[in-house]
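Schema walk-through. Below, the input block comes first and the output block second. Nothing else is stored per chain. Lengths vary across the set, and this one has 479 residues.
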Amino acid sequence: MTHPIKFGTDGWRGRIADDYTFDTVCLCAQGTAQYFLDLVKDTRKRGLVVGYDARFASEHFAQAVAEVLAGNGIPVHLVDRITPTPVFSYSIVHLGAAGGINITASHNPAADNGFKVRGDYGGAVDPEALRQIEARIDVADATNGVKRLPLAQAQAEGLVHLFDPSPAFIAELERHIDLERIRQAGLHVVVDPMWGAGMGWFPRLLDGGTTRITEIHNHRNPLFPDMQRPEPIPPNIARLQEAVVKLGADVGIANDGDADRVGPVDEHGNFIDQLRTFALLALYLLDVRGSRGPIVKTVSTTSMLEKLGELYDVPVYRTGVGFKYVAPKMLETNAMIGGEESGGYALRDHIPERDGIIVGLMVLDMMVQTGKTPSQLVDWLFDKVGTHYYNRIDRQLPPVEKDAIRARIAANPPATIAGRPVVDIWDDDGFKYTLDDDSWLLIRFSGTEPIIRVYTEAFSEEQVQQMLAEGLRLAGLEE
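--- output ---
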């Protein structure tokens, strides 16, 4: 195999027809099948779920995965339609399956697709499991050991059956959210599923009352026009922001390509960034719902969570970036909420998986229960924890330069950044520098793309810009 398959922050991703081909996807499926057979109890009895998103040829790659699993004697529950990642993930739990494989590249550019593995709890498998899967992929490649049973034959033999995962997921949503309360709230909500798997979900859930849902970008288009990629952050949400203002809507909700992330837009068309959204969700659970329990956050997200933890006397745990770290920590601590800077958040008593649908509904429920507009919700948060500002710069990175840049950053730790002393350095996943005023700067390599990211959270927009410039300089990427 020309391109070794390595799992990053969340699964393996590659460029379609380059390293992401039917042959490599089948190798991934074979290695994953062998992992479950070797290490997960009753896999041949419980079976695996296979899902897919709206990207180019995703359903065909999913069928190939199902054929490989069936070739290994593993029963397959294959979704019968384009399915959001959280809906796929919940179906694993609902069906009592041993785990699942999802064909999706989430927010990546249009040319990519991906392969995600989930455990029987519906969340990402941990890093050790991914290493075990990679080792078995290598063995399958070395021995040409892919077993594959044609789909029609697998169906005839009862090894593959198609199913609709939607009804069970809707019932699960109704257990967590009063949908009728939102339906009758008289809101006007603009939803942008970004041409992806979330198409039609909000109208389906909320039609029938006084609340109106307007969808944009709501048919399948794997080229993702009007945006650089289906990631619910600026500039990709420009059309959503315009629509909210033009229509006089109360709020905008964007989901990424597989609907496991969310990006809200306030009534003025302003983006509510990922860090503010995470802190608002935690505040909603703590204050409006009266929930208590740990909060799990990645190193790249907000210090507002620690402040909320102090105010409401709940612990906050920090992990590396990716739900392969967040999901296990949530299970270990029975966390109330877990999330990351990417705009993905998970809830206790649901699944330890990012869910952009339930979180979008929670944003609406927060508005209804508090009587506040989105901008007023942000003001409420800042009244509790102080004003925080955030931004991130992404730069393309030739893979051959990665090790040299990492070594240069490690060898030159700064004593000050933007004129303030560095009081803590964390280098388990990138390089995070915390300053004496609790602002921070993080330089980190993406686990899914050839990109280096510079992130910061500070207490003024001017400080954010100064710290981002310092981060680029430390990485040798200054303009």
